[in-house]
Structure formats: structure tokens, C-alpha cells
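Quick note —
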Amino acid sequence: MTELAPETRARVAARLRDQRIETASWAYGNSGTRFKVFPQEGVPRDPYEKLADAAVVHRYTGVAPTVALHIPWDLVEDYADLARHATELGVRVGTINSNVFQDNDYKLGSVTNPDAGVRRKAIGHLLECIDVMDRTGSRDLKLWFSDGTNYPGQDDVRTRQDRLAVALAETYARLGDEQRMLLEYKLFEPAFYMTDVPDWGTAYAHCIALGERAQVVIDTGHHAPGTNIEFIVAVLLRAGKLGGFDFNSRFYADDDLMVGAADPFQLFRILHEIVLADALSGRGSRSCWTSATTSNRRSRR
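Predicted structure written out below.
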């Protein structure tokens, strides 16, 4: 292998320093698989200690200045105090992630649930997350919905999309001028017949209807086998609708490996499109790059 010229090495190093990787608070806790969570010594006991761990990561890497929070997993009495604590540690509160998939009420969905009362509860939580954004200085609200159906005829597909659009519109209207909504998608699980936001096209269609501050999140582990993810990246960058990433990987089905574990060249191809668009620096003509979120969804179960 030919040794890199000094100027090339310096240019590559500068590009790498331009990265901003937003770590997830739940990644610092105990994690495991769907079947077992394995405890570890020294695991943070609360959001304050999670931020302390994240600050160590940033101190050693220099590219992880923000930490994504998850509500209610990171519930505290005073979010402004939590944000001050983060600043004192040398990091900041980043994306606020909502949770409308664990309550028993959400068995048939959250914002697309046939029950108007359940939909109202779910939307209320999304608005509560924006309140947390206001108190922490967070810029981004990240939404992922487990909503869907498990067999044909369980519910009307178009009606569920209408309910989703209504919920997204109300939430989008509550955002501040400098805040964004990031919509994630997932091919399947836990809804195995039809997921309400199963792919980037569905997420993109809803974001286009909402406005320029609604953007798509690509989870690199949320696609069918053989999906050309770098093509999706390029299209969304061109449209100014790429909001960020969840960096996972898949081998059998969904999020079963950490990013790059099975196909590191895929990660290279994805980042190549980002660099071509000059999206890391934000100088690209149609780029809307923000910090990427590195997460292991297995810790959620």
C-alpha cells in the first residue's frame, strides 16, 4: 500500500475532525439482546452519570460533543439543571427521543391507533418532548413509531396514514423556529404485516408535506437485504432532507450488529456520499447534515 502524501493525510485528518457523532444516553446503560439484559459494573445510575460517561468519550475522541436523551428513560425533575450539568462536563444535550411504544395503551399503535384517546395521549407525549427541548436547548426531536398491523384487515391503511399526518402536523406546529423534527423509519418489528413508517419514501413523503424543518433519519440497520443505502443518502442529501443517522447494522434481519461489523465497505460508501455533498461542514449546496446518532437498539429491549 502506498504511503499517503503529507498533504493528503492532513486533508483526511481534517475531514475526520469535522465529524460530529452524537452518542445516545441509553448506550451507556446495561444492554443485551431481546432475551436478556446483562448487568455491568460501573453502569450509570441516572442521566447525570450518563452525561459524565459521555463527557469522557468526547474528551478522548473530540468528535462527540452532544448526547441524545430519551424520554421517559432520562426523566429528571429539572431539565435545565441537567443541561447545565452537561455544559459543565464539556458536552451538550442533543436530540430528544420520544417513546410511544412501551405503554400497554399502544398495543394497537400510538399516533395511528384507532382509539382517539390513545392518539391524544401519544401526541401529548410528543409535545412534552418539545417542552424538554425548550428547557435543555435541544435542536432536534426524533420520532420513531412502532405503529402498524399484524395481519391484513386489522385496520385501514390509508386511514392510519391520515392519523399519522395529523399527529405529525400538530407536533411540527409546536416546534420553535430553530428546532427540527427528525422522522425515522423501520422496515418491520414489532408490526410484522404492515408498518406505518416502513421506509425512507414514506418518511420523506410526510416530511415534504410538513415543511423544511422536517427531515428523515436513516437507521443503517433498518432496511431489507440488499438495499442500496448510499443511494438513499444521496437522494435525501440532494433534496435537503437528510436529518441524520442511527448507525447500526444488519446481518439477518434488523439491528443485529453494530455498524460496519459485517460490511465495513458499506459504511465507507455511505460516508463517501456525505463527503461528496460537503455535508459534514454544512457547506454543501443542498445538504442538511446534523450530528449522527450512534446507538444499539438492543439496549431498548
